[in-house]
Amino acid sequence: QVQLVESGGGLVQPGGSLRLSCAASGSAFSTYNMGWYRQAPGKQRERVASITSGGRINYANSVKGRFTISRDNAKNTVYLQMNSLKPEDTAVYHCDAARRSLLPNFGDYWGQGTQVTVSS
């Protein structure tokens, strides 16, 4: 089993940057596929980015070129670097994990989320 705790959200102006972190506890972090998804009020969950245990990366079209996902298996942590933020990026961001593919699914484990608000 995996426990996930996100951090790094906050209020940022349009065009700004944030770096989200997701710390995992439990066994064998390196064997899990990891991802970030977001949910805005009144909207469905949206997969933002994912990284497999082997390092293959995928991004939603809406964030390509602006967001970067990475993982540090030594620290049991996955990151989401978000640049050139837009108001439409405002949402609660969750990380998730699974041993199966995260595309197009969501993980078997997820964290409580961190709020990202992009506003002037």
Q: Categorize the overall geometry.
A: globular
Mean pLDDT over the residues: 96
Helix/strand order, N-terminal first: EEEEEEEEEEE
Distance between the termini: 40 Å
Q: Strand fraction band?
A: over 45%
Main sheet, how many strands, which sense, barrel? 7 strands, mixed
Percent helix: under 10%
Query: What is the tally of helical segments?
Result: 0
Secondary-structure content class:
mainly beta
Cα Rg: 13 Å
Low-confidence stretches: none
Q: What is the total tally of β strands?
A: 11
Structure write-up:
It is built from no helices and eleven strands. By secondary structure, the chain is mainly beta. The strands form two sheets. Strands 2, 4, 5, 6, 9, 10 and 11 form a seven-stranded mixed sheet that branches. A four-stranded antiparallel sheet has the order 1-3-8-7, with no helix packed on it. Strand 7 (about 65-70) and strand 8 form a beta hairpin. The radius of gyration is 13 Å and the shape is globular.
What is the secondary structure topology, with strand pairs?
Layout (H helix, E strand, L loop, with lengths): L1 E6 L2 E3 L5 E9 L6 E7 L6 E6 L5 E3 L7 E6 L4 E6 L8 E8 L10 E2 L3 E5 L2
Parallel strand pairs: 2-11
Antiparallel strand pairs: 1-3, 3-8, 4-5, 4-9, 5-6, 7-8, 9-10, 9-11
What's this, in brief?
The protein has 120 residues and is mostly beta strands.
Features:
mainly beta; 120 residues; 11 strands; seven-stranded mixed sheet; four-stranded antiparallel sheet
